[in-house]
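Appendix B, example 12.
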Amino acid sequence: MSNETRIKSNALLCFSQVIAYAIICINIRAVAHADYIIAIISDLAFAFLNFYAISKIAKSENSFDAAIAYATGSAIGSVIGIKISETL
């Protein structure tokens, strides 16, 4: 796999984790407020994105790079999710 392809793949993995962890933060607030519809939608979205991330890591030639992208995206997503869920 070329460096350019690896960077694109890891960037996509990172971005998917940003979205996934933002969704899970929103989900936690939805559960706390007993908002069933938001909880169900966010659970489904999180599960889909988690499956995507697992499959990307499993297919990765360099799992360390993928792990860094995964962790970085998760941390950024949590911060974004907290900020978004504060406004809901």
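The chain has a mean pLDDT of 88. The chain has one domain: 12-87.
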